[in-house]
Amino acid sequence: MLTGRKLTMVGWAAVACLLLPLGEARAQDPGDVRVGITYTPGYLPGLVMTPVEAEGALSGAAAQVDTILRRDLDYADRFEIIAVPEDLATDGPVNYGLWNQLGAVWLVVSELTGTADAPILRVSLHDVVFSELKEVKAFSIPRPSSPDFRMAVHRVSDEVVTWATGEPGIAATRIVFRRMVTPTASDLFMIDSDGFGLRRLTREAATNDSSIVMSPELHPSGRYVVYTSFRSGWPVIYELDLVTGAEQVISDIGRVNVTPVYSPDGRRILFGRTQDDHTELFEIQRDPLCCTRRVTYTSTGETLGGAYSPDGSQLAITSTPLGNPQIYVLDLQRGGDPAIVSRYVFGERGYATSPHWSPRGDRIAYHTWVDSWFQIVTVNPDGSDRRVLTSRGNNEDPSWAPDGRHLVFAGTLRGYYALWVLDTVSGRLRSITVNQVDQLPHWSAPLNSGR
After folding, report:
1. Same domain, 234 and 352
2. Total count of domains within the chain
3. Model confidence over 175-196: pLDDT tens digits?
4. Residue-wise DSSP of 358-417
């Protein structure tokens, strides 16, 4: 398959048909440390959330807000969620001593007021240990029937996470991916990070039963998605405006146009394109569309995918000068030869692809061949401290969440196809889609509007 920032096993083979053979077939990578089933539990502060209070016509909306907030705070993986005993009275002044006895460090109290058409959600965060109100804020949210309602509540959840931890939450984000809607055709879909709000973005399969889309990536604003489509018979890169539905061609030159990614500021697009008899990486300004420049100069093999570092000064790229694909880091400012960061031992075969750079800048995720299966791996940008995060099934195409600790990937680690979210700190795993051939996920930046 082809990926959003990269190419996986099937994708490399497909592009090879358009170009030249890739050389050796992939083989096993014995791996180093495998932490997929050996995560060490760490301390999580207890958090309790009382039911969202409301009266009359707002009671139904309050129940929906309550469900979303609780799920988001749980999925943040920052707290031990403490249930409120059914016989415990939660009205009146905050009884810090009582909550402390229950093991709570944080207490979230919420109230929905206003009108059915213009609800106001007032949320307060209490520090139980120090018996004090830490933060309080009133949020205007849309009515529950609005398509912006769930995302508005997600943004409230993220603010609570930031109040308590000083770090960003991941609720107000979306994940774009490719779904095989028939055995031979695919379309792009998008889903909220909690697994709700599924939205179909393209309908190519409805008009062409052999149309394949791939390489989806969301613009930092969340308004655009760039991707590759075979609708014309050859891979062409398009950008789709998710608000207006307008589409523009980004690159259709040569036999191959693949793996587009946005620069961190959203002003440029990096992509792979045919150059003579092989593929190199190019960069183009997106608004206005102009000024293409070549980024890589590969003397041997193919360079087909890349991922920017958070500051845009470096690229993690997939390239094949050693025969099969490996992950390299290229310094865009200093130049010089790319440095290999995936595991390579002379005389041994290897296969590593799908790099994605953490928003924190400290880790690069990719997938590689381990014991006859693809597994998710992370390394420091210099290739040190290699960690294999999964150990069952076939798992590919990792993409970091904005918090730099959660990853989404496509996998079969529990015996069925799904998109999985992994907390790389605790090892907690959850699926956001089930029993669909969903692939090539890309996690958005925080969304500051209702798109």
Report:
1. yes
2. 2
3. 999 999 999 999 999 999 999 9
4. -TTSS-EEEEEEETTEEEEEEE-TTS-S-EE---SS-EEEEEE-TTSSEEEEEE-TTSS-
